[in-house]
Amino acid sequence: MLDYKIHAENDSMYNTPACWAIYVCGLVFQHLLAKGGLSAVQQNNEAKAKLIYDAIEGSNGFYANPVDPACRSLMNVPFTIPAKPELEKVFIKEAEALGMTQLKGHRSVGGMRASIYNAMPMEGVQALASFMQQFAAKHA
């Protein structure tokens, strides 16, 4: 059933492929090509992640990232305020007031989590990194 050769040999009558998923994949591929292809999207994702990780690392310990640098994600960047965890709710509330939503961390881990998938523009990541720096300076 998952072998497309069988579909082809049976004039696509063996089972109908997931047409909607194939269509959406095509749209995504066109979008990625319009952005310069996979290498350009990869470079953009690395630059976005670097902004957030640099904001964490450059905070003089105000923020912490619990993930080993060798295992860090380009898409989801978790961080905490280890010395003042009570400020994490304040951070989330103030960020939401600025239009930065969904920063609350995973329910089993806590803290904050910046999801910076392909659809997140560089400007949004820059705004978050800037807010992180301002928040740390205000509450250090």
From TrEMBL:
GO cellular component: chloroplast stroma
Reaction(s) catalysed (UniProt annotation): O-phospho-L-serine + 2-oxoglutarate = 3-phosphooxypyruvate + L-glutamate; 4-(phosphooxy)-L-threonine + 2-oxoglutarate = (R)-3-hydroxy-2-oxo-4-phosphooxybutanoate + L-glutamate
UniProt keyword annotations, A-Z: Amino-acid biosynthesis, Aminotransferase, Pyridoxal phosphate, Serine biosynthesis, Transferase
InterPro entries assigned to the protein according to its UniProt record, in alphabetical order: Aminotrans_V_dom, Pser_aminoTfrase, PyrdxlP-dep_Trfase, PyrdxlP-dep_Trfase_major, PyrdxlP-dep_Trfase_small
Coiled coil regions in record: none
Domain Aminotransferase class V positions: 3-128
Involved pathway(s): Amino-acid biosynthesis; L-serine biosynthesis; L-serine from 3-phospho-D-glycerate: step 2/3
Cofactors: pyridoxal 5'-phosphate
Enzyme Commission number(s) from the entry: 2.6.1.52
GO biological process terms on file: L-serine biosynthetic process
GO molecular function, a single term: pyridoxal phosphate binding
Family in the record: Belongs to the class-V pyridoxal-phosphate-dependent aminotransferase family. SerC subfamily.
PANTHER family: PHOSPHOSERINE AMINOTRANSFERASE
Protein's name in the database: phosphoserine transaminase
Native source organism of the sequence: Haematococcus lacustris (Green alga)
